[in-house]
Amino acid sequence: MGDITKMVERNEMKMQISPSLLAADFSRLGEELEKIEAAGADMIHLDVMDGVFVPNISFGMSVIASLRKTSRLFFDVHIMIVDPIRYIDSLAKAGADGITFHVEAAEDVGAVIQKIKGHGMKAGLTLRPGTPVEKVLPWLPQLDLALVMSVEPGFGGQSFMAGMMDKVAAIRSEAERIGRPDLILQVDGGVDRNTAAPCGKAGASCLVAGSAVFGKGDYAAEIAAIRAAAAGA
Question: Per CATH, the architecture of 5-232 is what?
């Protein structure tokens, strides 16, 4: 499994980049994963969708388990599924290092967080663009990661919602207030060279980029450019 410890320790040194495998070439996922690791990615973002919570289906446990055999990257798994607690055991067995679930999808948010941590994984929480940030703030003391969606979850290639940066700033402010500067604050959706700067300015410490990386010829150059744009803010 990947190691998030060094990643957390480096948060103040550089912006973390988690390329989204949803934008990769599915006919050669193993090769894509090797290339993205060599290009300097800090982790890999794996979107698991059930076609119910979001109107799309991606990949499941067997794909994650197969990829786990080929990579030492931190597997940053974002589940867009109803009743997420049902899948934590299977995701842990498949090789997830961290699981981020939706506050809207869980009947008992605390129970899901504890189940994730019980497997030794890192726990993350996220929310749809239309959900108030206050739904996440009370859980920050228990979380390792908070994710702000800057598009509607479910499909890649959407336009960046700049208004979501207010949520990023609110989470960063609350994390600092409660003594959690180590909280990984992630932004996912429409992130590229142009939108990375407002993410960094708002307080994000990790950016998920899909087509902005996998849609280019030089993965290393794109990762470096996105990181530099965010850090420059």
Answer: Alpha-Beta Barrel (3.20)
